Amino acid sequence: MAESRKMSAFTPREVVSELDRYIVGQNDAKRAVAIALRNRWRRQQVSDDLRDEIHPKNIIMIGPTGVGKTEIARRLAKLAQAPFVKVEASKFTEVGYVGRDVESMIRDLVEAAISLVREEETEKVRPRAEELAEDRLMELLHGGGAARPSTPPPFGFAPPPPPPPQRLGDAEREKLRAQLRAGTLDDQFVEVETADSAPTFMRGFSGQGMEEIGVNLQDLFKNMPGMNKTRRRRVKVPEALQLLRQEEAQKLVDPDRVQREAVARAESSGIVFIDEIDKIASREGGKGGAGPDVSREGVQRDILPIVEGSTVTTKYGMVKTDHMLFIAAGAFHVSKPSDLIPELQGRFPIRVELEPLSGEDLVRILREPKNSLLRQYTALLSTEGVRLSFTDDAVVELARIAQQANERTQNIGARRLHTVLERLLDEVSFSATEMGPRDFQVDAAYVRERLTSIVQDEDLSRYIL
After folding, report:
1. Angle at 193 between CA 188 and CA 197, to 5 degrees
2. pLDDT for res 225
3. Which end of the chain, N or C, is surrounded by fewer C-beta atoms within 10 Å?
4. Is residue 319 within 8 Å of residue 266, measured between CB atoms?
5. CB burial class (10 A; 0-12, 13-18, 19+) of residue 340?
C-alpha cells in the first residue's frame, strides 16, 4: 500500500539523520521514535493473522522544557506523512467535570487525517482543476456571465434563465489563455459566484461543547433548503482564478474516498502527542481521596482505554485506537512517572530521558539546524536590504548568556535563545527600514554591549530575559 511505501523509504538510521537536521542532541529519544516508526512498516509486512496482534510500543519522554520533546514528535509525523495531533493533558478533565473529554483527541486526529488526505488528493487533480478553472474564467472574461450555483434555488423558485452566451472559438480561446498565463489580464475585474459562509447563528456553536454528539451542526444543516447559498463577488482575475481552481478541485476530489482513506490512515499510522502528562500524575504518589488528585487520577483512567485500544465515535464513523502511536511527555519536576496509575504506566513501555541543554548544545542549536534562529533573523532582515551576519565569537557569547540566564532564573532550554536574540536585535529590527542596503555584523563585543548589563542585574533579567 501507499502508506507502506512512504514508511519503507526511511531506515531507523535515516530517520535519526533526518531529525538531526532540525534537533540537536537527544539521540536516545530520536532512536526510540525511529524504531517505533520502522516497526509500523514491519507490521505491514507480517501475515494478516499476526498483524492485528502487534501493537505499537508507546513512548514517554522525560525532560525539562525546551529540550526538543515536542519537536521530535512533530518532525517524525511530518517525515512519515502521518496524521499528528498534539494535546495538553492538563486540559482534559474527568467525566462529569467541566472541560474537554479525552475522546476529543481522537476526533482531532481524524480531522488532521482528513485535511492531510484531502490536500494530497487535491494535489493529484491540480493540473486538471487548473485547466477547468482557466476555461471557466475565459468564459467569464468573454462575457459568458458568472458561474451558476451547482444546487437548485430553494423551494423551486428561480428567475428565468438568461439566454445562453455565445461560445468562444478555439482561436479566441487560445489567445485569451495566452494572455491569462502571461499576466496581461491581471488588472481586470470579473464577477464570480462563491459559496457563502455558514449562517450567523451557526457560528455561535463551538465544536468543544458538542464533542459527545460526534456530528458537526454545519454538516447537518448545509443541505437544507436555503442554507447552501452563494453570493456574487467582484474580484481581480488572479483571485478569481484561485477561487475557481479551488472549486473545481473540490468537485474532482471524491469526499467518500477521502473519508475512508483518512480514517484508515488515522487508525494505522496516527500519532497522538500528549504533552504535560506529569500534570495529571498524583504528586509524590499521594494517596487518599481528596483534593485535585481525584480529578488527576480520573483523567488518567479516562485516557487509559484510549491508549489501550478502544473504539471512538466520530462524525466520520467509528475509529479504532488499537494501532495508533501515543507519545507522552513531561518534565516530572514535582511528580515521577511511577506516580501515574500502574495500568497507564504499563501502556508506555518505552521511557526516554532527555538531557538538559548545555552551553555547547546551545551553540550547535544556533548554528546547525536547517531552520536555526540565526538563519531566520538573517532572512527576515534581508527583506529590508540589511545583510546580517554573526561572527563565531558572537554565537558563543550568545549561547553563554542564554545558559547563564537559564541558570539564574528558570531553565527554559532553547526557548531562552528566542528571548536573547530578540533583545539583541531589537535596535536593528526597529531601524532596518531607515538603514538602507548595508552589511551589519554582530560580534562578541556587540553582544556584550547589548546584553551584559541586563544579565548582571539579576532582578532585571528575571523580567527581560
Report:
1. 125
2. 59
3. N
4. yes
5. buried
